[in-house]
Design goal:
about 210 residues, alpha+beta, 7-stranded mixed sheet, two-stranded antiparallel ribbon
């Protein structure tokens, strides 16, 4: 092979190796950062979750200590939601069914992003609907309290429209919180009951 061709080939190999190394660094760093966010080691504290002051469906004032002592699946929605919220509740019911006895250690927490309509009684009536999991904790509060809770969970929501028929856009993530009240993992809304149960089992096994 002519010297010039050899040099070109060698140069191409070096470039490819450098590119692969760069990709490897990005992938590994991304995984490390994701793990750091999950356990809070990047900043010394959990990046998701924190103090909140809300009211449950029985009208009782509660705070973040509600999460202590049990695994919790926390998500934000509203009772007038036509699709994602009821679907999420039904999916979480199916997820718990796949967890067997471990499901007894898990509570579901539904935080309303529509406090103007979602009074404690409205939440209580909604969560008593057939097909929803038993024992779901419904939370609401003032607009200020709800915004503060959404902020610490990095949950997005926005009012759309005016008048009595307005709706709410909101994020769809379900947050898996440990018995210490700290964030463990996020469940995408489209993960499905089987994969969600598998993820929860892996996380619970790690403690």
């Amino acid at each position: 092979m002519p010297r010039r061709s050899i040099l070109l080939f060698a140069g191409a190999c070096v470039a490819i190796a450098a590119a692969l190394a760069a990709v490897t660094v990005v992938v590994v760093t991304g995984r490390d950062q994701a793990a750091a966010v999950a356990d809070g080691s990047a900043t010394g504290q959990a990046s998701v979750g924190g103090p909140f002051q809300l009211v449950n469906q029985d009208g009782q004032a509660v705070d973040q200590t509600l999460l202590n002592g049990r695994w919790s699946l926390v998500f934000f929605g509203f009772t007038y939601c036509p699709d994602f919220c009821p679907t999420t509740l039904q999916a979480l019911e199916a997820t718990k069914a796949r967890l067997g006895p471990a499901a007894d250690d898990i509570q579901i927490v539904f935080v309303s992003v529509d406090p103007a309509r979602d009074t404690p009684q409205a939440l209580k009536d909604y969560l008593a609907s057939d097909g929803f999991p038993a024992g779901v904790v419904g939370l609401t509060g003032t607009e200020t309290q709800v915004k503060a809770a959404a902020d610490v969970y990095r949950a997005y929501y926005e009012k759309v429209g005016t008048g009595p028929d307005y709706t709410m856009n909101h994020s769809l993530t379900v947050y898996l919180m440990g018995p210490d009240g700290r964030f463990r993992s996020a469940l995408a809304h489209d993960l499905g009951p089987e994969r969600s149960a598998q993820l929860i089992q892996r996380v619970m096994a790690r403690g």
